[in-house]
């Protein structure tokens, strides 16, 4: 299963004390494939630096560069599906090109995708994704 994960999810699951840490552990243990782009990685790095530290962000990006289940993609088309926060479109474009099963996010800007028939993208929240992983 390939997924695209919004930065807010990693902020919520990085620490071992988080009830969602299983998502991070599942990534490290290769339980799912993560699709990313350069823009997504840059956002991960920037936000994790702000929320945690430069050291944590550097360690996380280094880990992503070493994991075999991370797929680096280069979308050639920008769908512009989210107009309320155009910066979120990088996740949609990545999900489309990777044919991801899910976009995992807690960001309400992605709600608009429920009303778009094509391209079809499935958005799930962190709790639902945790349940999906635990059921595997």
CATH architecture: 3-Layer(aba) Sandwich
* Number of E-type strands: 5
Element string (H = helix, E = strand): EHHEHHEHEEH
The CATH superfamily is identified as 5'-nuclease
Instruction: Give the rounded overall mean pLDDT.
Output: 94
User: Which strand order spans the largest sheet, edge to edge or round the barrel?
Assistant: 3-2-1-4-5
Q: What low-confidence regions span 5 or more consecutive residues with pLDDT below 50?
A: none
- C-alpha geometry: globular
Largest sheet: 5 strands, parallel
Class by alpha and beta content:
alpha/beta
Helix content: 40-55%
Number of domains: 1
Tell me the layout of helices and strands.
Layout: E1 2-5, H1 7-13, H2 21-28, E2 33-36, H3 38-51, H4 54-66, E3 70-72, H5 89-98, E4 102-104, E5 123-124, H6 126-135
Parallel strand pairs: 1-2, 1-4, 2-3, 4-5
Helix pairs in contact: 1-3, 3-4
Entry keywords:
five-stranded parallel beta sheet; 6 helices; alpha/beta; Rossmann fold
Summarize the structure.
By secondary structure, the chain is an alpha/beta fold. It has a single domain (2-135), classed as 5'-nuclease (Rossmann fold). Helices cover 46% and strands 12% of the residues.
Task: Describe this entry's structure for a reader.
- The chain is α/β, with parallel strands linked by helices and 136 residues long.
- The chain has a single domain, classed as 5'-nuclease (Rossmann fold, 3-Layer(aba) Sandwich), CATH 3.40.50.
- The protein is 46% helix and 12% strand.
- Strands 3-2-1-4-5 form a 5-stranded parallel beta sheet, with helices on both faces.
- Helix 1 (7-13) crosses helix 3 (38-51).
- The longest helix has 14 residues, at 38-51.
- The protein is globular, with a radius of gyration of 14 Å.
- The termini are close together.
- The model has no long low-confidence stretch (mean pLDDT 94).
């Amino acid at each position: 299963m390939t997924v695209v994960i919004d930065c807010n999810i990693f902020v919520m699951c990085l620490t071992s004390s988080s009830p969602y840490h299983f998502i991070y552990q599942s990534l490290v243990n290769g339980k799912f494939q993560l699709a990313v782009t350069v823009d997504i990685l840059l956002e991960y790095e920037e936000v994790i630096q702000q929320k945690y530290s430069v050291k944590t962000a550097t360690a996380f990006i280094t880990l992503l560069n070493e994991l075999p289940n991370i797929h680096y993609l280069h979308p050639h088309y920008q769908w512009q599906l989210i107009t309320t926060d155009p910066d979120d479109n990088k996740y949609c474009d990545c999900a489309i090109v990777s044919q991801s099963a899910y976009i995992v996010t807690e960001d309400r800007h992605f709600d608009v995708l429920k009303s778009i028939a094509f391209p079809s993208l499935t958005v799930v929240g962190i709790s639902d994704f945790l349940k999906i992983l635990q059921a595997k």
